[in-house]
Amino acid sequence: MIPNLKEMTGNAMSFTEKVTTRWDDRLVGSKACLECGDYLLECFDQFCDTTRMHKFSVRPGAFLGFMKIAVVFYFLALIALWVKFLGLAVILGTIPIFVTVFQFFYYKDFISFLYPEKEGQNVVGTIEPVDEVKQQIIVSAHHDSAHIFNFLDKDPENFPRKMQIANISSFGIAIIAWLLWIGQLIGFSMTIPSYLAAGIFTLLSYNVGQLWFFYDKKGTPGAGDNMICTALAMEVGKYFSQQKIAGNGLKNTRIVVASWDAEEAGLRGARAYIKKYLSELKAVKTYNFNLECMYDHKELGFLTSDLNSFVSLSESMVEDCLAVCKSLGHPIKKVPFPFLAGGTDAAEFAKVGIEATTLAAMNWVNKEGKPAYHTPRDTIEAVDAIAVSRCIEVGISYILRKEAFLR
Ligand SMILES: [Zn+2]
User: Fold this and answer.
1) Of 227, 254, 270, 363, whose CB count within 10 A is highest?
2) Which is it for strands 253-260 and 215-219: parallel, antiparallel or unpaired?
3) What ranges do the domains of the chain cover?
4) C-alpha 98 – ligand 1 centre gap (Å)
5) How far is the CA of 344 from the centre of ligand 1 (A)?
6) H/E run at residue 260
7) Is beta strand 305-306 parallel, antiparallel or unpaired with respect to 118-127?
8) How many Cα atoms occupy the beta-carbon half-sphere of 281 within 13 Å?
9) In angstroms, what is the span from residue 175 Cα to ligand 1's centroid?
10) Under a CB-based contact definition with an 8 Å cutoff, are residues 355 and 288 in contact?
11) Number of other residues whose CB lies within 10 A of the CB of residue 94
C-alpha cells in the first residue's frame, strides 16, 4: 500500500543511528540534548510547513530523586524505631510515601522545587491540509534519553524482585510504625514488638539502601527509547508532505509532528507544551498518536491506559487503530499500562481531554534476558526494524482513515 515503506524504514533506522551516535547521552538540559533539539528543528524545517521550538524550564532531578529521599527517610525511621521514638518513626516513615505517591505514581511536582532548573525544548512541525482544518493528528515521540538504570543494566533478572522488596520495605516500615505508635497510645507495652520490627527492617535495609544506586549519572543512547520514534514520526510527516507536493495532500487534516523533551523527567516536555498551547489544541478536534520503545514487533500494542494505569487513554482511538492494523494484517494488540511501569506522553494529552494513545513495541513488565530499555545497550542494534516498518504503515493508514471519516 505504501510503495516506499522499506526505504522509509531504512531512513528512520539510519537517522537514528546517526543521531544516537553523535549525541549518545541526551539527558534533558544537557548540551547534547539541546544540540540534538536544534538539529531536529533543522530537519523538521525541511518537510514541515511551519515549525516551532518551544523552550520550557524543568527540574529533572526531582523525578527519580524520590528514591534517594526514600532511602534517607527509611534509615532515619529505622533509628527512630531502635530508640523507640515511635511518633517520630511514623513521621519519618510516612513522608517518603507521600513523596513517592505524588512524585512517581501521579507525576506531580511535589518536591520539584528542591532541584535545580534546566532548559528543555520541544520541537514541533505542522503539515497543513489543502483546505480548511477540521482536525489535527499529533504524531509524537521524545528525543531526550533516560538515566541508565543500574539494576536493569547489571542485574536485569533480579530487577523486579529487588524493586518489590525495596518497595514493600519502604511502605512496610511506615505501616508498622503506625501500628506500634497506636498500640503505645492505647497503653500496650511496645518494647518487644518495636525491637522485633527494628530487627526485621534492619535485615531488609540492604535492599532499600540499594535504591540509592538505582540510576546512574549518565544517560542512555536512547535509540529504541526513543529516537527511533522521533525518526518514525518524521517519516510519517515527510510522507504527507511529499503527497501534498505531488498534489495529493490531505484535505482537512493537519499533521503535527512533535518530538518532546523531558519525557524521562516525568513527561514534563509534553506537559509544558500543553499548558502553553492548550487553547490552540482545543480549537480543533485533536488526536495524539504517540510512539514509544521500538524493541520487539511481537509486543506491538496500543495503550488503553497510562501513568501507572491512573489515566485512561482513548478506547475509541485504540479501536480505530486496531481496525487499521487488522486491515493491514498486523497482529497488534491493546494493553492496559501496568502499575509502577511509569508513564508516556499520551497521558498528558488524555489528562486535558484530548484523545490519545501510545503505540509501543515492548513488554512493559517482563525484562528478561538483556533488555536494552534504560541501559547502555539501547543502541540501533536493539531497535526492531519490523516494528518500525509496521508503525510507519499503521501511522499513515490511521491518518488516512481519520481523513476519510470526514467525508
Ligand atoms: Zn521513552
Assistant:
1) 227
2) unpaired
3) 5-60+118-146+220-405, 64-109+155-213
4) 25
5) 7
6) strand 253-260
7) unpaired
8) 23
9) 33
10) yes
11) 18
Distance 406 CA to ligand 1 centre (A): 32
Pick the CATH number of 5-60+118-146+220-405 from 3.20.20.20, 3.20.20.70, 3.40.50.2000, 3.40.630.10: 3.40.630.10
Instruction: Using DSSP bridges, classify how beta strands 355-361 and 285-294 pair: parallel, antiparallel or unpaired.
Output: parallel
Which DSSP category does 398 fall into?
Answer: H
Between the CA of 293 and the centroid of ligand 1 the distance, in Å, is 6
Q: Write down the residue that cell numbers 546512574 correspond to.
A: 216
pLDDT at 83: 94
Q: What is the rounded distance in angstroms from the CA atom of residue 156 to the CA atom of residue 165?
A: 15
Residue with cell 470526514: 406
Mean pLDDT, consecutive 10-residue stretches, the chain (407 aa), reads 92 98 98 98 98 97 88 96 95 92 82 91 98 98 97 86 89 96 92 94 93 94 98 98 97 98 96 98 98 97 94 97 96 91 95 98 83 96 97 98 93
* Cα–Cα distance list, 170 to 58, 67, 151, 177, 307 (Å): 28, 10, 18, 11, 21
Cα 225 to averaged position of ligand 1 atoms, centre (Å): 5
Cell of 111: 518536591
Torsion of the alpha carbons at 298, 304, 305 and 306, rounded to the nearest 10: 50
